[in-house]
Protein 1
Amino acid sequence: MTPNTNQTLGEFIIEHEKAFKYTSGELSRLINSIRLAAKVVNHEVNKAGLVDITGKAGDTNIQGEDQQKLDVYANNRFIETLINREIVCGIASEENDDYITIQGQNKAHDNKYVVLMDPLDGSSNIDVNVSVGTIFSIYRRKSPIGEPVEIDDFLQPGNQQVAAGYIIYGTSTMLVYTTGHGVNGFTLNPAIGTYYLSHPDMKFPDDGNIYSINEGNYVHFPQGVKDYIKYCQEECEEENRPYTSRYIGSLVSDFHRNMIKGGIYMYPNTAKAKNGKLRLLYECNPMAFIAEQAGGEASDGYQRILDINPTELHQRVPFFCGSKKMVEKAEEFMAKAK
Ligand code: AHG
Ligand code: MN
Ligand code: MN
Ligand code: MN
C-alpha cells in the first residue's frame, strides 16, 4: 500500500476546532467517539459471513421493521461508546422506542449535545454483501445544562444541526461529515485504523444524470413522481436524457454515489406509506444538511427538509435529495401535479 501523507481525521478535527461555534472541545471529542465506534462496527461488518452476525435478530423495532443482528450490534456499540465517554446528554436511535437520557457520574447531565442516529442503514443489504452505512446528527440541547434532556431537545428542525455525517462500509470505509463549513470525506486505512482526508470539500455536481428510486412501488407513487420518472426516461440529447437508473437500497450508498457523480435520490410518499419510509430525524435531516453543505438540495417534494418542525421522534417524510437542478426539476413536477 502506498503510504498516505494526507491529513488524518484526528489532525483535521484539531485544526478545524477553532472554526466551531463553541470551542470547548466537546464537539471534537464527540466526533472522535463516533469515529471510534465506527471502526468497531466496521470490523464486525467486515466479518459478516464468518461470524454469526448475519440474519434477523428476532425482534421488530418501533417502526415495525425486523431488526437484523447487525442493526442491534451497531446500535449497542454506538450507544455504549457515547455513554462510556459521557460525551452527550441524550441519544435517540431508529432502533430504540424512546430517547435515552445520559447522566454523568455526578448525575449532572453536563454535556451540551444530543445525538440522533441510524446505526445501521441499509439492513436488507447486510446478508448479501452490499454496502451499508451509519448516519448521525448532532444538536445543541435546548433544555438547561444540568437538567435531564427533554423530548424537545430532539425535536428540533434540521436547520439547527451543529454537525451531521455518515459512515459508508463499502469497498472501502469512509466517514463523511459536516459541521456547517462544507463536507469532507475520510477513508479508513484498516491496516492501521486511521482515517485519511481523501475527499476534501465534497460537492454535488449542480446537475446529474442518475435517478435513484425503488421503481417497484411505481403504481403507488404520486402523479408528480410518475411524471418526473417519465421525464428522466425520455430521450433528449442536449440534456443527456434518458438518465441512468441506479438504486442500491441503502440511502447512504445511493446518496454517496450521487454526491460524487451527480444524481437524485427519491423516496416519495406512496399510496401505502403516506409519509414515505425514511425517518426525518435519523435519515433525512442529516443527509439534507450534508447535501446542502455540498451545494445540493433536499426537499419533501414541496419544501426544504431542514425547515420541517418535527412532531415525533420516529416521524417519516417523503425525501427528494441530490443535485440542485434535479431536485428543483422534481419539485416542479410535484407542484404541477398537485
Ligand atoms: P434502514 O436499513 O436503516 O431501516 O433504512 C433502509 C432505508 C434506506 O436505507 C433505503 O434507501 C430504503 O430504506 C430502502 O427501502 P426499500 O427497500 O423500500 O426501497
Ligand atoms: Mn431499519
Ligand atoms: Mn436507514
Ligand atoms: Mn437503520
Protein 2
Amino acid sequence: MQSATEGNLGNQLGFPSLFPASASFWCFGKGCEIFPAIRYLRDFYKSQTRFSYKNSSMKQAIKVFKFGGSSLKDAAAVRNVANILRNYNKEKLAIVVSAMGKTTNALETVVEAHAARNGEAFSILNDIKAQHYRIIDELFGREDEVYASVNDTFVEVEWVLEEEPHENYDYMYDQIVSAGELASSKIVAAFLNKVGLKTQWLDARDIILTDNIFREGWVQWEETLERSAKIARPMLEKEGFILTQGFIGSTSENFTTTLGREGSDYTAAIFSYCLDADDMTIWKDVPGVLTADPRLFENVVKLGRLSYREAIEMTYYGAKVIHPKTIKPLQNKSIPLFVKSFIEPTGEGTVISDEVEDNYPPMVAVETNQCLLSISTLDFSFVAEHHISYIFNLIAGLRIQVNMMQNSAISFSLIINDIDDKADRLAELLKDKFKVMMDRGLELITVRHYQQDVLDNLRRGKIVLLEEKIKDKTVQMAVKDVPVMRRKLVPGKP
Ligand code: ADP
Ligand code: ASP
Ligand code: MG
C-alpha cells in the first residue's frame, strides 16, 4: 500500500470505510460549507470517537508543548522553561524543543562554509559548541554526563566536515543542521531530570518518517502514526514527561531529514495528531497571536480567539508566529492550539480552535526576501496551459512555495521566497524555454480584513510591483522601497 503523505492527511482520520477518501468530505473551509450535513456527520463521529476513547481508557488528557529557540536561548531561559513545566508535573506531557537561540542560523553558516571549502566551517562550529558548553557549565557543571552526550552530537558534525562536501547540498545540510535540535533536547531533558521533573528523551527520528527530499521532508503519516503508537505512547504511559526534537525526521534508510525552517511548531502538531492530544501549546516571546509582527508594527493587538481557517490563512500568508503547516493536523482532529507567552506564562494567550469568530480586525503579514520571477515566452506567443503546467512541474520538483502569482496573455509572474538557491535554480531551468526576469529584495505584504487607510499607509514610500485582491477581504502586494523624493532648496528661490 502506498504511504500516506502530506497531500492526503485527511485519509488518516481513520474512517475510510465510512467515507471514500476522494469525497469532498475531507475538504475543509469552503468544501465543508458546501456540505454542511457531511461536516456535521464528521464532527459528530469525531466527537463520539474522542469521547469513547477517553471514557473507555479513563486516561489522563495528553498535552503537547513546544518551546522554540527564543525560549531556550541561554541558561536562564532553560530555567524559566523548567519553572513553567513544574506547573504541569502531574500531566501526561510531550515536549518538543527547537535548537537553542539562533543555533540553526549558525549551523547553516557551517554548511555554507563547508560547501564553499573556505576553511571556516570548524571555527564556526567551535563557537556553536562553546555556546552550548557555556550553558551546560551554568546549568550542570562540566562533570555532568550531558556534556559527553552533547559532545557526541557535535563529533558527528565534525565527521561530516572531515569528508569532502557532499554533492547533494540539501542532504549535507540536514546531517549538520539537525545537531541543533539534538543538542538542545539533550540539555533540556537532562536539566528537567536534574530539577526533579522526570523526563524521557525521545529521538524524533524514530517517530517521524519522511520521504527522501532533504530540507523539506514530507511526513509519511501512516508509518509515523504506527511508530508513535508503538514507541511514543508507551513512553507517555510511564511516569514523567517525554521530550523530543522539533524540525527533524528520518528517511526509511535512517538518514536525517528536516521539515523546513521553523518547522518545530509543525513537529508538535504531528505529535499532537499522532498521540491524539487533547490540546497543544506553543510558548512564544509574544503574548499570543497579534494583528501583526510587533517587531515591525506599532499598535498591534492580541487576538483572543482564532478559527483554524483564519490561522491557516494568516500563517500561509507569512505571519511568522506559527509555522504554516502546523494548523491542518490539529484541525483534522479538532485539537485546540494555545499560543502563550513564556515570559508571562499565566497570561491567557490565543486559542485557535473550531470556534468561528466573524469580526477580525485588519491583520498584516510581511514576508521579506521575496523574488519576483516574470516569465514570458521567447517568441512572445501566449503563455498557455502547457507552459504553466511545465513551469509548475519545475516548481514542484524544487519544492518551492509560491506566495503569489498572476498571469497575463504573454507573461506569468510568480513571487517566491529568496532565502536559498532555489530561485536561481528555477530561473536557470526556465531559461531554456522562456525569457525570465528577476526582481529581488522585495517584500510581500498581505493584509487580511483590510481597511483602506491601512493599505494606504502600507503603500507609502513603496513601489507596488504586483498587487491582487483575493476574496475574504485579503490584499497582497509585492513592493519595493523607493526613497521619498524631496525638493532641494535652491538658493534665491522661495
Ligand atoms: P520560536 O521561538 O518558537 O522560534 P518565533 O521567533 O519563530 O518563535 O516566533 C515568534 C515571533 O513571531 C515573535 O517574536 C514575533 O516577532 C513574530 N511574529 C510575526 N508575526 C506575528 C504575529 N502576527 N503575532 C505574534 N508574533 C508575530
Ligand atoms: N531550529 C529550526 C529553525 O530555526 C526549527 C525551529 O526552530 O522551528 O528553523
Ligand atoms: Mg522560530
